[in-house]
Amino acid sequence: MQSRNLQEKKGQTRPIGIATTEDKVVQSALREVLEAIYEQDFLDCSYGFRPGRSAHDAVRALTRAVDEGEANWILEFDVVSFFDSLCRTQLLEMLQKRVADGSMLRLIGKCLHVGVLDGEEFTEPSEGTVQGSTLSPLLGNAYLHYVLDLWFAEEVKPHLRGKGRLVRYADDGVFGFERQDDAQRVMAVLGKRLERFGLKLHPQKTRLLDFRGPPRSQGEGKGPTSFDFLGFCWYWRRTRRGSWTVACKTRRARLARAIQAVHAWCRDNRHQPVKQQHAMLTRKVQGHINYFGVNGNMASLERFLRQAQRSWFKWLNRRSQRARLTWERYEDLLRDFPLPRARIVVSIWR
Question: Rounded to the nearest 5 degrees, what angle is found at the Cα of 48, between the Cα atoms of 183 and 103?
Answer without folding.
Answer: 115
